[in-house]
Structure formats: structure tokens, C-alpha cells
């Protein structure tokens, strides 16, 4: 019969430390008979007597003392390892892996990274910016950030932002040169800055709504980018019109470097949510990030100006 090489070692260590079968049984929450039986099986398996027993005392034999001397450091290391493991349950620590769309890089991640690291230095942030739909489990991520409409129903989702308002914007210099479109179809006669998603290679659609009907307009122009900051910068420079989220152009709208057009035709889109599988909801490192992020966003009034 095959035996587990660790059978009886827990009982052996307890008896050796307490020099008593009764005290060892109390520590292990078993009966003295069970402890005695485990020790007898260990001695039978090894072929070595480990304890000298009398009615008054229990003492290690020379072989038992040798085994105890070797096992005790290993047992201490196991206890320390389990103590560290319990730390993952009780306090934020370890690595928190997040996947988020590029849109959230400047809006959320840049300000949150230093705040989180200062508050939780025991946690390493591992952030991947990716516009594609990501399988959290397959990718080894603890959580993701995406538009609510793209999140699977079996995920737990925490709302981070209000519904997102998108706008068609241009610089005063561009409008002075090319005029302003009045209806979405006018965009076919304007220079429009395209945005291409890095992962899929597909273009971001310019979506509009008229009388409860959603539609898109095919746009063209001399600039196509795959970086949100470059998109905004190109619009600021007068290179054309951009279709951008108000959160990423809040400062430019506030100081007049960019102006909106076609606003009655641009609908709201879903908010950004942080989502995760139910199995991870109790992880302190994730809970800490959620609490800090939602608190910071609330203090910012839902992410108005940066």
C-alpha cells in the first residue's frame, strides 16, 4: 500500500514539542488515542522507535530527536508561508492585474496609479491598455474596465463614470477656415480625423441619433491615429474634426481650444464599469482599488475637468 510520506508527521511534531500525547491531542483537536495510533503507524512505516513511553513521561529517542531537529525548521517555514497566505486574505497585497481601454489611460489610470501606490505600497499594479474584449480568466486578469454594454452578464460590475457623452469637435482655426457642419451628413465635406483600434484594426464609428433612430456617417480625412491623446492633439492643431469623449477633452472645451458641433445629434453611450468574476470579489487588493477609484471619481464630480 502506498503511504503519504507526511502521514503522522503533524502528530509527531506536536508530541515532540509538548512531550505529551494528551497535550498534543488537545492542540490538534483530536483524541489521544488518534495521536498514539498515528505515531505507531509512523514508527511501523519507518521501522524506527521515535519515543520512549512510560506511564509518567514521553521522551524522544535518539532517532526521534534527529527527526525532530530536521523537521522543526521546515515546519516553521510552513507556518510562515501560511501566515503570508493569510495576509492575502486580510490585507491588500500581491499583484493586481487590470485590463482597460485606451480611453481610460489618461482619464483614470494616470491619476489613480500614484494615489493607489501611495495608499497600498504592498500591491503591484499590472495594467494592460487594450480596446479589445478580453477574457479575464484566460488572460490572468483580476478585473477589467470597459463600457457597460460590452460586459458579460455573469460578471460583477461597478459603475465608475456617468454615461459618456461624445462630441464632434474642432478648433476655432479649423472652423474659421472650413465652416461648421449643421447636420451629420455635412461631415462628408469636412476633414475628419480617424481613430483606429490597435487590436482589431477597425475604425471608430461616428454614431448619431435623429428622431430616435441611430445611424453612422462614413467620414474621411488625411489623418488616422490609434492613440487618444494624438487624436485630441490633432484636433487642437486644426487638422480636422474629431469624434471624442467629453471626458478626454474637458480641459479643451472649458478653455475654448475645441468647440462642439452637431451636439443635438450625438447620443450618450454607456458608462465605464470595472468588472470582475464573482470569485475575486473578496480579494482585498481589488476591493482597495474599487474603493479608491470610486471615491476619487466621486470627489471629481464624476470626472468633469481633470
TrEMBL record:
The keyword Transcription is annotated on this UniProt entry: yes
Ranges where the HTH lysR-type domain occurs: 12-61
InterPro entries: LysR-type_TF_proteobact-type, LysR_HTH_N, LysR_subst-bd, WH-like_DNA-bd_sf, WH_DNA-bd_sf
Keyword presence, Cell inner membrane: no
Pfam entry (one): HTH_1
Alphabetical list of SUPFAM superfamilies matching this protein: Periplasmic binding protein-like II, Winged helix' DNA-binding domain
One annotated GO molecular function: DNA binding
Keywords: DNA-binding, Transcription, Transcription regulation
Family the entry assigns: Belongs to the LysR transcriptional regulatory family.
Protein name: LysR family transcriptional regulator
Amino acid at each position: 500500500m502506498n503511504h503519504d510520506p507526511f502521514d503522522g508527521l503533524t502528530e509527531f511534531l506536536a508530541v515532540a514539542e509538548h512531550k505529551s500525547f494528551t497535550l498534543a491531542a488537545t492542540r490538534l483537536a483530536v483524541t489521544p488515542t488518534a495521536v498514539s495510533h498515528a505515531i505507531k503507524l509512523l514508527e511501523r512505516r519507518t521501522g524506527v522507535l521515535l519515543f520512549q513511553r512510560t506511564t509518567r513521561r514521553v521522551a524522544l529517542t535518539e532517532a526521534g530527536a534527529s527527526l525532530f531537529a530536521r523537521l522543526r525548521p521546515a515546519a516553521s517555514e510552513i507556518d510562515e508561508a501560511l501566515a503570508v497566505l493569510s495576509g492575502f486574505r486580510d490585507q491588500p497585497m500581491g499583484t493586481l492585474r487590470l485590463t482597460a481601454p485606451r480611453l481610460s489611460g489618461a482619464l483614470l489610470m494616470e491619476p489613480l496609479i500614484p494615489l493607489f501606490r501611495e495608499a497600498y505600497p504592498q500591491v503591484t499594479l499590472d495594467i494592460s491598455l487594450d480596446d479589445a474584449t478580453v477574457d479575464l480568466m484566460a488572460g490572468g486578469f483580476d478585473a477589467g474596465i470597459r463600457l457597460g454594454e460590452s460586459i458579460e452578464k455573469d460578471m460583477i460590475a461597478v459603475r465608475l463614470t456617468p454615461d459618456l457623452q461624445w462630441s464632434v469637435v474642432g478648433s476655432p482655426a479649423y472652423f474659421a477656415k472650413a465652416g461648421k457642419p449643421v447636420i451629420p451628413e455635412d461631415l462628408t465635406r469636412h476633414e475628419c480625423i480617424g481613430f483606429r483600434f490597435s487590436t482589431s484594426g477597425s475604425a471608430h464609428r461616428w454614431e448619431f441619433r435623429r428622431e430616435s433612430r441611430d445611424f453612422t456617417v462614413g467620414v474621411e480625412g488625411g489623418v488616422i491615429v490609434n492613440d487618444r491623446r494624438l487624436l485630441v492633439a490633432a484636433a487642437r492643431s486644426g487638422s480636422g474634426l474629431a469624434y471624442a469623449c467629453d471626458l478626454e477633452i474637458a480641459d479643451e472645451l472649458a478653455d475654448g481650444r475645441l468647440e462642439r458641433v452637431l451636439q443635438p445629434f450625438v447620443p450618450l453611450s454607456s458608462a465605464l464599469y470595472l468588472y470582475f468574476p464573482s470569485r475575486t470579489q473578496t480579494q482585498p487588493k481589488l476591493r482597495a482599488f474599487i474603493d479608491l477609484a470610486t471615491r476619487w471619481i466621486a470627489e471629481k464630480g464624476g470626472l468633469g475637468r481633470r
